[in-house]
Description:
By secondary structure, the protein is α+β, with helices and mostly antiparallel strands. The protein has eight helices and seven strands. The chain folds into two domains: 2-133, no CATH class; 140-359, Histidine kinase-like ATPase, C-terminal domain (Heat Shock Protein 90, 2-Layer Sandwich), CATH 3.30.565.10. Strands 2-4-5-7-6 form a five-stranded mixed β-sheet. α3 packs antiparallel against α4 (98-168) and α7 (254-271) packs antiparallel against α8 (326-338). Mean pLDDT is 77; it is low at 317-323.
Amino acid sequence: MKEKMKKARLLNIKQPFRDIIATAGLLLATTILASFLFFFVSRSPINIALFFMVGTITIARYTNGYFYGIFSSFFGVIFINCFFTYPYLKIDFLRPDYPFTFVCILTLSLVTSAVTTNLKQQAEALRLHEHQLAEAEKEKMRANLLRAVSHDMRTPLTGIIGSISAIEEGGVCSLEECRELIHNIREDASWMLHMVENLLSVTKIQTGGSRLATAPEIVDEVVEESVTRLKKRLPHADICVELPEEILMIPMDAMMVEQVLINLLENAVVHSGSQQPVQLLVKDQATEISFHVIDQGEGLNKGQLKHLFDGTYSKGPSADGQKGMGIGLSICHTIITAHGGTISAKNNEKGAEFLFTLPKEEAHV
């Protein structure tokens, strides 16, 4: 915070010098170009005055406040009178037509400068407002993320504490029951580790300003690695993969896209309520590659579809009895958006379908 305040003060000190240099440089450039216009194109003072007005608008655009535009307007009129009207190299406002003509030119220049400065200030205010809205949206996402993490971690932690308490009681449980309790602890701890990996993925995106270190990756290899990693966690998972015949290569952060695929596949296996195989379809389209994760289960809660990717989604009325899927979907949305792609979900006749796309060309987001 102190570093930001120090930089802001330093910027406030340097800004007037930059404005002075910009004003002097643009006035000099305008005078030189006006001289070229005067000697080689037209000697009309009105044309010269219009040219200086352009210079005044430019100065008002690239400096802060009204002063520099007004200053350039005033001196522009003096330069026109001194260098581009007869008698040359003399300031003479005593001729009958000069006062009215140059008062009009000065007034027009001042008004133009004021309007330009005002428009620039309005644009800056709009930019600041948009920045504040973006920050507010980020705060909302952080709040949703924190709420989802707190909610989702409560279930496995409760299970771990309960299992440890049962084991600590010693003779209360048999050897087989103790093994089952240890197995439950391992599953809950594994799930929590998976969630921490998700959070680290989001942190990587946020600290990088949503600029990913992408590189061309073979889609088949990313899909194969995702399925392999999933089966290490869920050996019973039955995944049916369909890939295009041709080899596809697109820019991506492979680790993060694998994380998205694992999240979606795991949700389909664990939360669908179906023993049928989960389909993973990859389709080659004109400007993007689409990934479809389709299950044959219960489908999504229609009343919560609009909250699907904001970190607050739960499978049923109360998710306290099971590990939630909202946090993973929120992270999937963050990763795919950072890649310049889209992610969506819908209910089919049987089960749910999650679809995300990745552009074939590098996305600048």
